């Protein structure tokens, strides 16, 4: 899980203090009282009391600093009495003292309490007042890393997917590649499996239209995967359809859809067939081979396809191993996580999944299919992944596992190899989108999983590549997808072009 908030947890309160002021901390610490109340496993309420003596001390220091430059009528600079300077600049001094007290107090809270924050404190600075008399009191809430007993992680028994990449695997994958250079031609026949239907969709809740998609392109498969629903029966629905036909079916929206009122609801899908197209695959000529990646021969192309299949197999192996590790580590993790934390981190979970899939050479359509599935249960998935992350982070700390500059270079190089972009461009894009912390957590977690694997025992089990039975489309039945994020959309091709990467 990409728990980006927790990757910088040790400096969160310090950061909050820095934002309140740049003054150098005084040598004498504040005699503050700190009361921490546990609201839930990951939530704390902190009450800070600053005694009057510290407020007066800060006031005296502030006035002392101001006197040499204070300009008051009837006095030369530096000659005005301190009491008069304090009265004349009371408002300015009050704001300055309040800010400095807050800044220093937050630093001390961070140093003394060791709260391990995973988010910024919800401190409303504007509501904190500097009192005329008595102590200064302020409160804030903060999310912290949960406290738990570290589960046993050495000696796990793990099943590991295993298979040899066969010539048949390469042949099938090569056929999918050829679809990228194939032609989509209009067809008068009813759509068969693998054909492409161009359709307009309307989704109705009773008589109310909740969303629509015009000229949506869907490959005929048993299912259609939307961002917040899955319709099983698509191939059967359109089996006898012709251009101009309007069909209808019931679709059940995911329990984690973006629109709360529509979660779990059955709505009507109206589908109007606009056009049916079929693929005509090209022959594997030297020109096509070169166009697929500047390969000089068919043998070189097949070798590259085999290597990509091995990369995907490695991803499946890692996923299955990690799933078993996660199940073992989180079996006793019964602690609850704050809903707002889950909501905030759900987008990061999607982004982490996308980065990992890109690194492993999956095409845009495969990524869209996987992300659509993840979106439909993203909160539950995020909860599992966050718990796993916290446990892996604890193991990493205890085993002194850390990321290096070379780790970042390796990850970025791997993504660049699969996407065809330069490493420099990949890094710039990740930095622009604020995803370097996602990458950092991915590196730490992978290293920690590697350590757990080194201590585990393995049994190899047969593995078969999944044959996708759903076509993933870029549309949310509700009109907006939960955890919306940028994923390059693999568009279906017009006649004479192609749609890429379909298995």
Task: Walk me through the structure.
It is a single chain. This protein has 14 helices and 13 strands. The chain has helices at 12-20, 52-66, 82-88, 90-113, 167-179, 234-238, 286-291, 298-330, 339-359, 364-375, 378-398, 405-419, 423-432, 436-454, and strands at 33-40, 43-50, 136-143, 157-162, 183-186, 196-205, 208-219, 223-225, 230-232, 246-252, 266-280, 457-462, 470-472. Strands 5, 6, 7, 10 and 11 form a five-stranded antiparallel sheet that branches. A three-stranded antiparallel sheet has the order 1-2-3. Strands 9-8-13 form a three-stranded mixed sheet. The protein is elongated. The chain starts with 11 loop residues before the first helix and ends in a 31-residue tail after the last strand. The model is unreliable at 1-11, 22-26 and 484-503 (pLDDT under 50).
Q: Rough shape?
A: elongated
**Helix-strand topology string:** HEEHHHEEHEEEEEHEEHHHHHHHHEE
Q: What ranges have pLDDT less than 50 throughout 5 or more consecutive residues?
A: 1-11, 22-26, 484-503
| Estimated helix fraction | 40-55%
Q: How big is the Rg?
A: 30 Å
- Note the main sheet: 5 strands, antiparallel
Estimated structural class: alpha+beta
Terminal residue distance:
28 Å
Round the mean pLDDT to the nearest integer and report it: 83
Give the number of DSSP strands. Answer: 13
């Amino acid at each position: 899980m990409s728990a980006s908030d927790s990757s910088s947890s040790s400096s969160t309160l310090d950061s909050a203090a820095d934002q309140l002021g740049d003054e150098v901390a005084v040598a004498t610490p504040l005699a503050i009282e700190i009361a921490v109340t546990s609201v839930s496993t990951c939530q704390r309420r902190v009450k800070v009391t600053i005694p009057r003596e510290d407020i007066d001390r800060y006031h005296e220091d502030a006035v002392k600093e101001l006197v040499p430059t204070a300009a008051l009528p009837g006095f030369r600079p530096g000659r005005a009495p301190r009491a008069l300077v304090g009265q004349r600049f009371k408002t300015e001094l009050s704001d300055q003292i309040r800010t400095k007290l807050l800044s220093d107090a937050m630093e001390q809270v961070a140093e003394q309490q060791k709260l391990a924050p995973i988010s910024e404190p919800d401190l409303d600075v504007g509501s904190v007042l500097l009192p005329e008399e008595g102590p200064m009191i302020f409160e804030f809430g903060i999310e912290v890393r949960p406290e738990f007993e570290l589960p046993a992680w050495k000696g796990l028994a793990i099943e590991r997917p295993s298979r040899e990449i066969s010539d048949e695997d390469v042949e099938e994958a090569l056929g999918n590649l050829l679809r990228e250079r194939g032609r989509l031609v209009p067809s008068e026949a009813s759509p068969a499996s693998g054909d492409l239907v161009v359709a307009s969709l309307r989704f109705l809740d009773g008589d109310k239209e909740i969303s629509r998609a015009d000229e949506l392109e869907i490959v005929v498969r048993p299912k259609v995967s939307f961002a917040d629903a899955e319709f099983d029966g698509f191939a059967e629905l359109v089996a006898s359809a012709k251009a101009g036909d309007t069909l209808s079916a019931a679709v059940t929206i995911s329990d984690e859809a973006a629109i709360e009122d529509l979660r779990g609801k059955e709505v009507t899908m109206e589908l109007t067939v606009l056009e049916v197209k079929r693929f005509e695959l090209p022959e594997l000529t030297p020109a096509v081979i070169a166009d697929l990646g500047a390969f000089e021969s068919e043998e070189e192309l097949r070798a590259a396809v085999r290597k990509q299949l091995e990369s995907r197999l490695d991803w499946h192996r890692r996923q299955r191993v990690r799933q078993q590790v996660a199940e073992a580590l989180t079996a006793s993790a019964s602690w609850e996580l704050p809903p707002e934390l889950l909501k905030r981190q759900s987008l990061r979970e999607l982004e982490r999944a996308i980065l990992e899939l890109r690194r492993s050479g999956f095409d845009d359509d495969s990524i869209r299919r996987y992300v659509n599935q993840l979106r439909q249960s993203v909160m539950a998935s995020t909860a599992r992944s966050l718990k796993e992350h916290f446990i892996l982070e604890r193991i990493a700390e205890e085993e002194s596992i850390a990321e290096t500059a070379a780790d970042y270079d390796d990850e970025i190089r791997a993504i660049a190899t699969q996407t065809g972009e330069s490493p420099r461009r990949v890094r710039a894009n990740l930095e622009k989108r604020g995803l370097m912390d996602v990458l950092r957590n991915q590196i730490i977690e992978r290293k920690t999983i590697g350590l757990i694997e080194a201590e585990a025992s393995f049994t190899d089990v047969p593995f078969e590549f999944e044959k996708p039975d759903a076509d993933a489309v870029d549309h949310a039945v509700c009109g907006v997808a939960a955890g919306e994020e940028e994923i390059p959309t693999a568009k279906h091709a017009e006649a004479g072009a192609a749609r890429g990467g379909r298995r």
